[in-house]
Amino acid sequence: MRPQGALRGYSGRREEGIRGGLLQPLPRDHHRAGGRVDRPRGGERFEGAGGDGEVQGGATVKVHLAIPYELLRERLEEVLRHRLCPEIYFDAQALEGCNDADLRACAEALREEGLTFSFHGPFMDLAPGALDSKIKEVTWDRFSETMRLASLVRPECVVFHVGYDPWRHGEYKELWIASSLEIWRPLFAKAEETGVRVALENVFDEGPHLIGEILTRAGNGWVGFCFDPAHHLLFSKVPLGDWLAALGERLVEVHVHDNHGQTDEHLPPGDGRVDFELLFSLLPHRDLLFTLEVHREEYVQRGLEGLMEMLQSWEATG
Q1: What is residue 113's predicted lDDT score, i.e. its pLDDT?
Q2: Quick check: helix, strand or coil at residue 86?
Q3: E strand or H helix at 255
Q4: Kind of pairing, strands 198-201 and 158-161?
């Protein structure tokens, strides 16, 4: 039996949702949890992570919280009251049950409160580089439907997992990449057509090269990189600094959670072994979106507070 209070998140488990009312309201002036941190940068010019134009004299840092779509609809008033900006996760069930009018209503309610939002696409059982045409067809259907919904409400960013697993796909890596480009090229074209930014996230990747190759061969100005340092801790054989050296120019989003190097625990930052001090010392000082990905409601307040402290220290070094 699952503990009450578990967030249905990116683990792929179908959770019951959070119902305990544990979200604590943040102070009204704690605007970073409601959207952004403005950092003066001496007249530099920046382009926002959501494609919302240039910011003269300051960079914008946005902070989102991972929330499944069905849970967002269920507790939208609570999310608005606590001024939380969601990264909305769409699994297969959410995509099938999503009504365009309901999604538009959620987006309108968030924007009326000055709150931004992003999307996280589905990933369970999907394989962009599948050699089986049926599996690839389902993957395309799920990804393209996510982008269709994004075109309706224009989120800041849509995150997709690359889906490459060296343990399963390593023997035919080049075939997998070539096959995946048949998904990524039209998907990225949709991003450009609709003006919605897409970011590819590392999961099982042992290094930055495969994502870099996809971005080089199929990317356009609307496609970037979402770095997950907790996944890096679990799966990468390449130092964190090498990842940012290779893909830092394409970085648009960072996923923030922690683990102890054994399983993908999605703990609050600081509760595990992720070296956030090193991460923030290497991050480029420009517009970025940070999404807190903790999968238990009781972690949310502490996770947001920890992230804000790290962002404040990062700002001071900029």
Answers
A1: 98
A2: strand
A3: strand 251-256
A4: parallel
Q: What is the reported pLDDT for 105?
A: 98
Report the Cα–Cα distance between both ends of the chain, in Å, rounded: 46
Judge contact between 84 and 66, C-beta under 8 A.
no
> Distance of alpha carbon 57 from its chain centroid, rounded?
26
Residue 201: phi and psi, rounded to 5, are -105, 140
Measure the CA–CA gap between 67 and 90, rounded to whole angstroms. 9
> Is the pLDDT reported for residue 76 higher than 60?
yes
- Residue (of 120, 152, 121) closest to 139 by Cα position: 121
Architecture of the domain whose range is 39-317 = Alpha-Beta Barrel (3.20)
**pTM of the predicted structure, to 2 decimals:** 0.84
CA distances from 189 to 182, 222, 308, 312 (A): 11, 9, 35, 36
Q: Phi/psi at 148 (nearest 5 deg)?
A: -65, -45
SS3 of 245, please? Answer: helix
Q: Which sequence spans correspond to the domains of the chain?
A: 39-317
- Three-state DSSP at 310 gives helix
Phi first, then psi, for residue 189 (nearest 5°) are: -65, -35
pLDDT surpasses 80 at 135: yes
**CA angle, residues 296, 264, 223, in degrees to nearest 5:** 95
What burial class does residue 122 get, using C-beta atoms within 10 Å of its C-beta: 0-12 exposed, 13-18 middle, 19+ buried? buried
pLDDT at 58: 59
